[in-house]
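Thread: manganese (II) ion complex, take 2
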Amino acid sequence: MKANLDVLPLDSWINTGGKPLVIAGPCSAETEEQVWDTVTGIAKEGYAHVIRAGVWKPRTRPGGFEGKGEEALPWLQAVKKETGLPVAVEVATPQHVELALKYGIDILWIGARTTVNPFNVQDLADSLKGVDVPVLIKNPVNPDLALWIGAFERIAGAGIKKLGAIHRGFSNAQETKFRNSPMWQIAVELKTQFPQLPLIGDPSHMAGKRAYLYELTQRILDLNYDGLIIESHRNPDEAWSDAAQQLTPSALGEMLRELEVRKPTYGSDFQTELAKLRGQIDHIDRELLEVLANRMALVERLGEYKRDNSVAVLQLDRWKEVHKSRADWAKSLNLYPEMVEELFKLIHMESIRKQTEVMNQQVV
Ligand code: PEP
Ligand code: MN
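Output below.
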């Protein structure tokens, strides 16, 4: 399907003075005082352009805190009036949209558990027809880029042009370091297909724990995302949802000040050096592929030899030895072991495919 989205640039609907957009606020609006203290604390620090707060909370199992609902919307109106900062909430149903708009909420976001369901997203799109409100769409919980893109197409189909993507990572089947695996390549692929679509990183829901926020946020900035959405609570340990991943407004300020936003330099020396390095990389990539082609030619000969001597393609002992020796070589060359492992899995799969092809060729 032809990919195309009619999207307005981020700076046409929010002014960040050329800096990455920062959306900050509590996971959930819990009480009037908690919203007030947290948001005025954030505003005092001066780093946020938008305030976030969950009012309707999708919970995996019933019985948890499911958000204050409509009752919390006037609390957000009050902090918006006090700080002048626009506010964003998560919407999951047309009724949420209606209420959010009724209370003057400025930005809506669609949560990861909603993006997975095209019926749900279409209902939201239908409720947004003729409305001029920015909508941010979180990635679906499962790593399915097409599903994420489909949600943009549905919301764009309702005439929404102020769109943005929130990358919050993907659910894991097994326990991993992060609560949700970033799988950066999925967000990078989205940005490659839709360069005009603002991309916002959500280190809070990737991390799950405060200790990982710094490294994830720096990574997001290094990948040149257009902004961040980060959770902050006046008293994180007491938060009614996502307690382990929130920071106080001042701790968040401290972290953001320590991060490095790498600004492009446009001097001609820089451009010349960049072009030179890229030229060298192009050259090496070409060599890499030539070496790979030589390897595949040998694999083909090996396949013929095995065929002529009735030896099976897959020899587990040999594969184990390849695996081990490449891991050792990678180590001595200071290469990231997981990358080398993945690379050799791919190369090995291709070798097996090639040899199987050779085995099944008619001998003339
Ligand atoms: C949230 O932003 O608090 C939230 C529920 O996030 P997600 O949809 O990414 O799980
Ligand atoms: Mn949360």
